[in-house]
Amino acid sequence: MKRRMVTAIILLIITLIALIIFIGLYIDETHRVQETYRRQYTTELRHVNEEITIYKAAEGDLDYHYNRITVYMANAGSFAFLIENFTDKQIVINEISTCLLKYPNQMKDKLEDLQQAITDILAELDKGYDEAKAIYESIELKGN
Question: Where are the beta strands (DSSP E) in the chain?
Fold first, then answer.
């Protein structure tokens, strides 16, 4: 009986140690994945800035570059969705993405403001999200 009890206690201790190690590895991997999402989010925003620069310089097919801006912004919105505790900022990014899709005629005039807002977001300034919010709030929703 003593032998079984000692064996059971040893197995319990081993199981608890394995559980603690598993929890630690899970938390570490979660942080690593979130960091990957944040890195991809900023990469997509950088692509938006680059495409706006090309668009403003009138290099090549403007519709093509505008579509690329739209796609990169949608990608940024997708990665923003995956980032934890990012809901308010995600809403702003998704609204801008929606405006780029639905109201291209109005958004083409606001690309410089969008570029400034994204530059501020990449500099980790909260005013960038406020600037982006002001852009989509200025859109006339019944227009093109």
Answer: none
pTM for the structure as a whole:
0.82
Cα 46 to its chain centre, rounded Å, is: 12
Neighbouring CB atoms inside 10 A of 47's CB total 18
The amino acid sitting at 40 is: Q
- Residue whose entry in the numeric block shows the structure tokens 């519709």: 63
Cα distances (angstroms) measured from residue 17 to each of 22, 27, 29, 40, 95 = 9, 16, 18, 35, 47
**Residue pLDDT, tens place only, 56-75:** 887 778 888 999 999 999 99
What is the rounded CA–CA span in Å between residue 69 and residue 90?
Answer: 17
Query: What is the C-alpha to C-alpha distance for residues 53 and 47, in angstroms, rounded to an integer?
Result: 10
The count of C-alpha atoms lying within 13 angstroms of the C-alpha of 122, restricted to the half-sphere facing its C-beta, is 19
When computed from its CA atoms, the radius of gyration of the chain, rounded to whole angstroms, is: 24
The beta strands (E) that lie in 19-111 are given as none
Number of H helices, E strands in the chain: 6, 0
